[in-house]
Write a structure and sequence with these properties.
Strand content: 5-15%
Oligomer: single chain
Number of domains: 2
Order of helices and strands: HHHHHHHHHHEHEEHEE
Mean pLDDT: 78
Low-confidence stretches: 1-18, 369-377, 415-426
Shape: rod-shaped
CATH architecture of the largest domain: 2-Layer Sandwich
């Protein structure tokens, strides 16, 4: 059998060369060929010593062995050189069989050689031809007609062919399976890369949205308050210097607060009130006191805490609720024209609720999403976005002339954060 196991497989044998079982079978056929050739030559020399044909038998045996050894050099593809080699190999064997029928059993390894190199139909034709020579040689050696000698060689040829075809098909299936696995792995890697790119894009968008809300609820609101106070101070500077200076001092306090927020914002984006210690309750009380002082009598903000949390709130929940309170109070100052507002933090078993109530002019909640058109505010959409990221809900109770109550509820049970929602203009 040609040892093209390590070469490129030919038609009809594709994939066999990469099968470990096929390689072992190749080595076994090599060993069997040389063993059968040596045994046949030994048998002939022992039974026919000194005959005239003996030199020819020895020479043809050596030639057959040399030709067989050349097989690995030519490979297993049906190239012109390999086909010529196979034809010469079979022709030398046939001459040996005609001269000495005992060489017929070397046909078994030659079956595999033909099956490996030739296309399927040509290989089967070669197997049939070799089988006929084997049957004829066995009948020559027999003293009379023996049915076993007629039936045994075709049976051996059929078994050898079936084994090889089965191994070839198994190797083909294994190759197809390997190709599908490689395709699946490539698809998986490509999908993972696309997923990672999508997650990076979504993370970038979510981070941009979060940063815009952080800036809106801190620096932008503070700068807006400073602008109004400084404008008021400018208008009353000549008529009422004391009031103007009070406005300037209030604006200075807001600027100091904004500076602390900016520094904390750069450091880790945590609210400055929370960074000072005391928890969310203390931060909300400090916010109420500060907003009352900055309003200079126009707005009074009170803070109430109901219940006690059994566990400390996560940092992102505390930060979000404080930012919601800041954003809601900024809306109260700018739009509600209220004189009183209340922050109520309620700790429940499964959630924490922050209510922001005011006695202002109120509005129609169904029309808040797209009616204001303010260029500088996130407003209620920003609050909804913060709660959405935490799996929370926002409830609005309001009517024209009856004030407003915003209720932000955040669940305390662990839950997968929903994807960020697109930001809507206030």
């Amino acid at each position: 059998m040609s040892s093209g196991a390590e070469g490129t497989p030919g038609p009809g044998t594709k994939g066999v060369s990469g099968d470990p079982d096929a390689r072992w079978l190749t080595l076994l056929m090599h060993a069997a060929f040389f063993l059968l050739l040596g045994a046949s030559l030994t048998r002939f020399l022992l039974r026919h010593p000194g005959e005239a044909r003996t030199p020819w038998i020895i020479a043809l045996s050596v030639a057959l062995a040399v030709l067989y050894v050349l097989g690995p050099v030519l490979g297993s593809r049906p190239t012109p050189r390999s086909l010529v080699w196979l034809g010469v190999l079979v022709a030398v064997w046939m001459v040996l069989v005609v001269l000495a029928p005992s060489f017929a059993w070397c046909a078994v390894p030659l079956f595999f050689t033909g099956l490996r190199i030739l296309p399927p139909r040509a290989a089967l034709a070669l197997v049939a031809l070799l089988t006929l020579f084997v049957v004829a040689a066995q009948l020559r050696l027999a003293e009379g007609f023996d049915p076993n000698l007629v039936l045994a060689p075709p049976a051996v040829a059929a078994v050898a062919t079936a084994v090889f075809v089965h191994m070839r098909r198994q190797a083909g299936r294994q190759r197809e399976l390997s190709e599908r696995q490689r395709e699946l792995i490539d698809d998986l890697l490509r999908t993972r890369r696309e997923l990672a790119a999508t997650e990076r894009r979504e993370g970038t968008l979510a981070e941009r949205q979060r940063l815009s809300m952080e800036i809106h609820d801190t620096l932008a609101q503070g700068l807006s308050s400073q602008q109004m106070l400084l404008q008021a101070a400018d208008r009353t500077w000549d008529a009422d210097p004391a009031t103007a200076r009070r406005h300037v001092r209030t604006a200075t306090g807001i600027a100091e607060r904004n500076l602390a927020e900016a520094r904390r914002f750069v450091h880790d984006l945590a609210p400055a009130d929370l960074a000072e210690g005391g928890g969310l309750e203390a931060a909300l009380r400090a916010l109420a006191v500060r907003e009352t002082a900055q309003a200079q009598g126009r707005l009074t903000v009170r803070c109430h805490v109901e219940g006690e949390g059994h566990t400390a709130l996560p940092d992102r929940v505390r930060s979000a609720l404080l930012r919601i309170a800041q954003g809601a109070l900024a809306n109260v100052k700018e739009h509600a024209h209220a004189t009183e507002a209340a922050l109520t933090l309620t700790h429940l078993d499964d959630r924490v609720v922050l209510d922001i109530a005011d006695n202002g002019q109120g509005f129609t909640p169904a029309g808040t999403a797209r009616t204001t058109g303010s260029v500088r505010g996130h407003g209620l959409p920003a609050i909804r976005a913060r709660l959405h990221q935490l799996g929370g809900t926002l409830t609005i109770e309001s009517a024209p002339g009856e004030g407003t109550v915003l209720s932000a509820a955040v669940p305390l049970t662990p839950a997968a954060a929903p994807p960020p929602v697109p930001e809507e203009p206030a």
